[in-house]
Amino acid sequence: MTRFFRVNAVWDPEAEVFYSQSDIEGFHFEASDLDEFEAIMMDVAPELIVLNHRTVSGYGESSTESIPVILWQHP
Fold first, then answer.
1. Cα-based torsion angle of the residue sequence 17, 22, 28, 31 in order, rounded to the nearest 10 degrees
2. Where are the domains of the chain?
């Protein structure tokens, strides 16, 4: 079973940054533009998913089984 995680890029006009809204535990960051946002997301999110959401009962024996998928949206 594949598990999906959501990441939204939300623009804060006062601070002039995109900030993350996500169901990935501990995943909170800001970026000045969407390219930077996406780069940070792709670098950090997979590691946080493994650290904070991987359980023995949630994944099979094979490391290629049940690979989490990140869904992200921007305005």
1. -30
2. 15-54
